[in-house]
Structures are given as C-alpha cells and as structure tokens.
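Design a sequence for this backbone.
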C-alpha cells in the first residue's frame, strides 16, 4: 500500500498519537494513581479509533475528494473528442498516482501546444510563399493586359509579344496549381500507385537524354555511375518515378555549377531494395536548410539569391511520391562540395 494512501496515513497518525498519549497517561497514573493496565488499554483503543476516524474523514472530505475531482477531469480530457463521458468510480489510491497522471497530461498538452505552434508557423510561411509565387505572374498579366488595352493591342510590334508573355505567366500559375493539386492528392492517397516491373537504369538513360540539351546549355555533364550496363529491375509506378528522376536531375542542373557542373546517377543493391542516388558537384546546401528542402515552396538562400525559376514544389512532390511507394528519401550535402539525393525502391 502506498504511503500516501488515506488509510495508511490515518493509521500511522492515529498510532503515533495513541502511543504518545498512552505513555503520558501511564506516567500520570503512576504519579497520581495506581497503575492499571486494563483502563490504559481501553483508553488507548478508544483514542486510536477516535483519532483514526477523525483523520480518515478529514482526508476523504477535504483532500481526496478534491483529488478525485482533478483525476476525473484529467481522465475525461484524455478521452477522444466527441465520446460520451462515462459514469464511473475514480479510485485514487495515492497522491503519486494523481501526480503521475497530471504530469503525463501536462506533458502531452505541452507537446500538443508546441506542435500547434509549429503548424501555425508553417501555415504562415506557406500562405506567404503562395502569395509570393502567384504575385509575380498575376502582376505581370495585369501589366501586359493594361498595356494592350491602352493601345498596345493595335501595335503589331508589341501585341503578339505581350500576349506570349501573358501566356507564359498563365502557364506558370497553372503549373503551380497543378503541383499543389498533385501534392494534395498524394497526401490524402487519392492517387493509386500502379506497380510495375521495369528497368530503372533504362528509364534513367531516357531521362538523361531528355535533359541533355538543358544540361549542355548549363555546361553540365550528365552520367550514369561506372559499370551501370546491366539492367536493374524495380517494382514501382513508372510514371511517377520518372517524375522523381526528372525533378532531381533537373534540380541538379538548375542549381549546380554553371560551367563545369557534373550530375551522376548511381544504383546500389540493398537486399530487398534498390538505392538510387543523384549526386551533383554544386555549391551544396547549408546544414540548417537541409531539414527543410522537402517543404512546399521552400528554396535555399542560394536558389533565391540567383533567382532561379521554379516554384519550390518539385522536391515536395518527390518526397510524397517516394512515401506513397512506402519507401524513404534523404539528402546529404556539403557546402562547396555538392549534394546527393538518395531514395529507395523495392527490388523486383
């Protein structure tokens, strides 16, 4: 039984008081009266019962009823929202139990509050990023349309050019909205992955050929790792994995070195999985930015400073696609050395 059990407390206090007054009573009897054991025992027993009942009642009435109320409140607060409150007896055997319950509940609420604060910060940043990404194309469209309405529509030297610029801004907005829709559908699992067996090496070669022209403009060399001649078969959705590789290789070209950039794709056998790595020799990502590279709209300071095109949704889409395959993706980077994105796929 716990030391803070009301019965235990009452028994101990009653025993101490009874022993003390019995000793005092026996001493007085020896001084003033003839010592008799029976009256002493009867008096001690009655005193013990009286003190016990008083302390037990006091503890139950003024202390443990309040503790039970606290315990009941915490119990109801811990129940899932919307469930009916149960009528039950809340037995509180010790203050330690209540203290533990209160501490656990307080820690849980503290964690929830911290999580809500983090979500609120993320929400503000997300709304700010949407505003920033959509503001430029909207203002551009507004400027082009006003110019055309102010007489530019009749001027053959600018009307077609401004209409083409308007189309470009509209396409950028459509691209952002489409990417947001893709991420939303992936998050709520509305997009079902069509698992097929295919050669990931062959798919990578197709993507490198597709991006070769863009790489040449940036003077970036695209290569497969040495001795990647044999096929490597994986079980995945080929369409979505194509987008993953396109986004990663395109990022390595876009944010890599401008003249002597190098991007290499490697494959490693990991027993049940295949590890795919996309490595570049770009400027790298600062350590404090690495945990955020997969966030929506997030772009590193280097990417923002050089005003690269792109909404910052590509890596977020990549992460959601890989997670939809029940696989993982991570990034490692060193400033001035380069960055590697690595993800796994199930071996076929």
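Sequence:
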């Amino acid at each position: 039984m716990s030391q803070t059990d009301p019965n235990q407390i009452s028994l101990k206090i009653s025993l101490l008081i009874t022993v003390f007054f019995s000793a005092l009573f026996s001493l007085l009897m020896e001084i003033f009266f003839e010592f008799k054991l029976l009256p002493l025992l009867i008096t001690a027993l009655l005193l013990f019962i009286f003190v016990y009942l008083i302390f037990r009642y006091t503890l139950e009435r003024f202390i443990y009823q309040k503790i039970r109320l606290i315990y009941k409140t915490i119990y109801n607060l811990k129940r899932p929202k919307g469930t009916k409150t149960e009528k039950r007896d809340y037995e509180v055997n010790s203050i330690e139990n209540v203290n533990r319950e209160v501490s656990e509940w307080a820690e849980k609420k503290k964690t929830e509050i911290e999580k809500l604060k983090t979500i609120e910060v993320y929400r503000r940043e997300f709304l700010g990023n949407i505003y920033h990404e959509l503001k430029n194309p909207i203002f551009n469209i507004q400027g082009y349309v006003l110019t055309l309405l102010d007489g530019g529509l009749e001027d053959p030297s600018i009307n077609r050019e401004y209409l083409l610029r308007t189309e470009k801004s509209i396409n950028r907005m459509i691209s952002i909205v489409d990417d947001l829709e893709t991420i939303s559908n992936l998050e709520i699992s509305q997009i079902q992955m069509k698992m097929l067996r295919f050669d990931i090496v062959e798919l990578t070669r197709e993507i490198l050929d597709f991006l070769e022209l863009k790489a040449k403009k940036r003077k970036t060399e695209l290569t497969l790792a040495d001795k990647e001649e044999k096929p490597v078969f994986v079980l995945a959705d080929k369409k979505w994995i194509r987008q993953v590789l396109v986004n990663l290789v395109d990022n390595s070209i876009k944010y890599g070195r401008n003249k002597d950039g190098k991007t290499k794709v490697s494959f490693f056998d990991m027993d049940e999985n295949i590890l795919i790595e996309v490595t570049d020799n770009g400027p790298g990502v600062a350590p404090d930015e690495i945990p955020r590279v997969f966030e929506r709209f997030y772009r590193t300071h280097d990417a923002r400073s050089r005003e690269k095109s792109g909404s910052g949704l590509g890596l977020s889409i990549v992460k959601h696609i890989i997670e939809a395959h029940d696989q993982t993706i991570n990034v490692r980077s060193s400033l001035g050395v380069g960055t590697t994105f690595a993800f796994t796929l199930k071996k076929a």
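Residues 95-149 form the longest helix (55 residues).
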